[in-house]
Amino acid sequence: MPLSELATAPDGKFYGTTRHGGSNDLGTVFSLTTSGVFTTIYAFSGGADGAHPCAALALGANGHLYGTAPYGGAQNAGSVFEVTTAGSFTLLHLFAGGSDGAEPTATLAVGSDGLLYGVASRGGAFGCGTIFRINAGGIFTNLHDFTGIDGDHPAAALTPLGGALYGTTQYGGAGNCGTVFKISTNGVYSLLFSFNGLNGAIPRAALARSSNGVFYGTTAYGGEGGFGSIFRITSAGSFESLYSFIGENLGSNPSGGLLLEGNRYVQGSTALGGAHGFGSIFWMTVSGGIDSFYSFNGDETGANPATALAQGSDGNLYGTSGSGGTGGGGTFFKLTMPPYFDAIQILSGQQVRYSGAGGTPNGQYILLTTTNLMAPITNWVAAGALPFDSTGRFSFTNTTPKTINLMRLP
Fold this sequence. Notes:
Layout: E1 7-8, E2 14-18, E3 28-32, E4 38-43, E5 58-59, E6 65-69, E7 79-83, E8 89-94, E9 109-110, E10 116-120, E11 130-134, E12 140-145, E13 159-161, E14 164-169, E15 179-184, E16 189-194, E17 208-209, E18 215-219, E19 229-233, E20 239-244, E21 259-261, E22 265-270, E23 280-285, E24 290-295, E25 310-311, E26 317-321, E27 331-335, E28 340-346, E29 352-357, E30 364-370, E31 381-387, E32 394-398, E33 404-408
Antiparallel strand pairs: 1-2, 2-3, 3-4, 5-6, 6-7, 7-8, 9-10, 10-11, 11-12, 13-14, 14-15, 15-16, 17-18, 18-19, 19-20, 21-22, 22-23, 23-24, 25-26, 26-27, 28-29, 29-32, 30-31, 30-33
């Protein structure tokens, strides 16, 4: 049962965790190639190593993977661990369930100082969870105890920006509907925003940071329709609601984070809704225009995706669903996105320049052209190759007026 997004390592493989399964049915760490070769590299025992991991793995500068398990250990309060891509496991910290926190359910973040930062969903001085720092040698520091008013029950990874980290709590804040916060690497905490239900409630996913420093996120509930929302917020706390789900074919209850493409588009998933009621994958402009381009059917394609998507080195999108599939224990999927236009520029005279994204990095399409829209496609003229750059972007200039252009696979 994979409940976390996939992490991409320098070897081109994806790495992740499953909550159950393995030789002890207490969860695993696995690798997955883009061609679907699955390998279990570590199985949890439930003792000093932890149990039932449900968060993604973080990639350290040394190429090792770092993660959390919410249970296991003497107090059954969870662990922080290191594992190599070959499966060599090292325990870094066992939670005692008191002042250091308990149940770390979120992915670790690598701060600007190279240290690891994370959250524990329970424990701490007020029982509302903690924020902590740990290095690769296992030296652990508690940075903040949530009080309830400033947040409660953090369950998502922190997002670094400069010398600070930004995150969410599922509950707490002025309306007890969750918060967005900022914390410096030395523990200075600032509450940035409290959800009130109408603008969203229960943010379960990490914030996604755009290249211009704006954060995008989701709430699993609330919003004007009550089925979750998409929002953006600046590092200073300026908040804007972008979309409220209403439970229709676009999906509902987004529990995973967002994947940003530059400063133009966001992609994500919903745990429920869609054409079949088992969740969907959506695409949205940063101004709020949204569309669903895939719905899970609950059978072979999976059901209830609750994690962020990952982009592979081949330009395709990869993700996990928490249930469904042949054995009912969830799926790993690949979604091939077609290229799309995102900009039109009128040049001098009658020349028009078209730009787009979403192509296979360093690949190409064939550009076809015609002056007669009613002509069969076999009569369209091949105008040449349309190459994609290393990021999948492309552009071409139409110099002939009254022509129609089409891209196709070579």
